[in-house]
Amino acid sequence: NSVRVKIPASTANLGPGFDSLGMALSLYSYVEMKRAEETTISLHGEHLKGIPTDKTNLVYKVAQAVFNKAGVHVPELEISMYSEIPLTRGLGSSATTIIGAMVAANELIGSPLMREELFTMATQIEKHPDNVGASLFGGFAVCAWDGNDAHHISFDPPEQLEVLVVIPQFELSTTKAREALPRELSFQDAVYNIGRTSMLVGALASGRYDLLSAAMKDKLHQPYRAALVPGMAEILEEAPRKGALGAALSGAGPTVLAFVHQEERDKHGLETYMVETMRAQGIEADTMW
Ligand code: HSE
Questions:
Q1: Angle, vertex CA 138, rays to CA 123 and CA 271, nearest 5
Q2: Where, in this chain's numbering, is ATP bound (predicted)?
Q3: What is the pLDDT of residues 69-84, one digit of tens each?
């Protein structure tokens, strides 16, 4: 028997919640897995080009980690994967691969591992909990990880919230975007971010759209990553005046995200503004709602 799972992409941080907040997006990857005589891996769709199809493949390796943890021996697998998610753009594509592989492998052997265990394992592989948490639990996920155990709470974001993502046509690795971060921060900036992050969680939980713009401000990572994403700083500053409820760098970037009220009349104006601002910096970008 074969197992098929559908996993959502995710956006992480949402401004101030660095390595803590994530949100699932309606953009998906699909992983299919079954036992086989000999391992075969087939990849479909333009976004998986160049990914290995031997046993160094991440889906295969993660599946084996699940089998090891569960004490089950399944050395050979038939794996098939399709993805709609652009790679290395800040949309959590690696997290969807890890979660897809874990959920499929666990299901294949009768689900011996609990979701919380999968979450901790996935976080240890990914090294931050926000994308894997959102992909695994869906909705809006608040995550905490101390290097060992990962904890989370998740809930559905308010219904009238729409998400616009502007995806620049260049890749930015998470490693490079993390290298741009400072080793130390001032106490003042830490306090600034705690206030915003807490307010953002409360605002999303209670539908306080009016607080989003203030709550999405950040001094912890976006200012340091601005140089890697031309046009971003201006967009984050201006987007609330162009119809966005709030805006942020999506994960480690380069995608930039805006929250928009479903009834906002000038959605198209906001979208054009964001694309044109990047174009003025020589960057072409695709958009998705
Ligand atoms: N929280 C992570 C970061 C997300 O900002 O580096 C990476 O997708």
A1: 105
A2: 86-96
A3: 999 999 999 999 999 9
What atom in ligand 1 is closest to the CA of residue 95?
8
For ligand 1, atom 4, the nearest C-alpha belongs to: 251
Whole-complex ipTM: 0.98
> Which residues lie below 8 Å from residue 268, measured CB to CB, with a gap of 6+?
none
Residue nearest to atom 5 of ligand 1 (CA): 252
The per-residue pLDDT for 19 is 97
For residue 110, the tally of other CB atoms under 10 A from its CB is 8
Confirm or deny that 26 is annotated as ligand binding.
no
Spatial CA neighbour of 97 closest among 69, 123, 134, 62: 62
Cα 49 to Cα 75, 157, 255: the distances in Å are 25, 33, 20
Spatial CA neighbour of 118 closest among 149, 87, 83 = 149
In angstroms, rounded to a whole number, what is the distance separating the alpha carbons of residues 31 and 101?
A: 7
